[in-house]
Design brief:
It is a single chain. The chain has 239 residues and is mostly beta strands. The chain has 2 helices and 15 strands. A hairpin with a 2-residue loop joins strand 14 and strand 15. The protein is globular.
């Protein structure tokens, strides 16, 4: 078995798989809690909890916590956290800030960004500034962007996404619908695929959105070469 730190990295990659928007619910839930199991291949490797809470000023705060489980706990105690704020504007999600950090492990990691929409700038924790393209999301807000405005079937679009350290442009394809068996029952889902970038042809990232459950992501799968990491919904509160 590969190191648990590597396993957790794959879990994080699978989670921020969460891609781009284009047309449905006019509001996000007041409160939301999504719990997932993380598998590396067929082995249980961790648990992830993602929350969303509406603040008194109308903005939203979201958090994510990923911790090792199963055999992974024998290799690492590292846990990953995300915190962010966003607002809904013109029926779309607009991120305001994003922080990602790790506790435990040999090397502490902490990255953050602030979105200045008035000046169209993104500011990184190390002082760098960069132009802020329209529709940019972070690895946390993108989930809620899809919940609010899922892409039309068979549509393809480009979207800028930041992980707190850099800004990357990805292309996403709404590949069709699929019936999926989950712990929540058998669900009708929209299948989204992140298309490979140049030089990354071996990477395959897929997301399943539950069309009748406010478009929550119920499954996320990342494949690269002979490795596979999967997040599967365990429970959903607030939908």
């Amino acid at each position: 078995m590969r190191s648990a730190a590597y396993t957790i990295r794959w879990g994080r990659l699978a989670l921020f798989l969460l891609l781009a928007p284009a047309g449905a619910h006019a509001a996000l839930p007041e409160k939301l809690e999504l719990k997932y199991t993380l598998h590396y291949g067929k082995l249980l490797a961790g648990h992830t909890v993602r929350t969303l809470t509406r603040e008194p000023d109308g903005s939203y705060r979201h958090t994510t916590w990923t911790r090792p489980a199963g055999l992974a706990r024998a290799f690492t105690s590292a846990e990953w956290f995300e915190e962010g704020r966003l607002r809904v504007k013109d029926d779309g999600v607009q991120p305001l800030s994003y922080l990602k950090y790790r506790e435990g492990g040999r090397k502490p990691r902490r990255h953050s960004v602030v979105f200045d929409w008035a000046k169209q700038l993104i500011r990184f924790h190390d002082g760098r500034e960069q132009a802020l393209p329209a529709g940019t999301q972070d690895e946390g807000s993108i989930l809620f962007a899809f919940m609010l405005r899922p892409p039309a079937p068979q549509s393809e679009q480009s979207l800028h996404v930041t992980n707190g350290k850099k800004l990357v442009s990805y292309r996403y394809l709404a590949a069709g619908t699929e019936t999926l068996a989950t712990p929540l029952g058998t669900l009708r889902t929209l299948v989204l695929k992140r298309l490979p970038q140049d030089g990354a042809a071996g990477e395959d990232l897929t997301l399943w959105l539950a069309l009748d459950r406010r478009n929550i992501p119920v499954k996320v799968r990342l494949r690269e070469d002979d490795r596979e990491a999967t997040l599967l919904i365990e429970s959903a509160g607030g939908i």
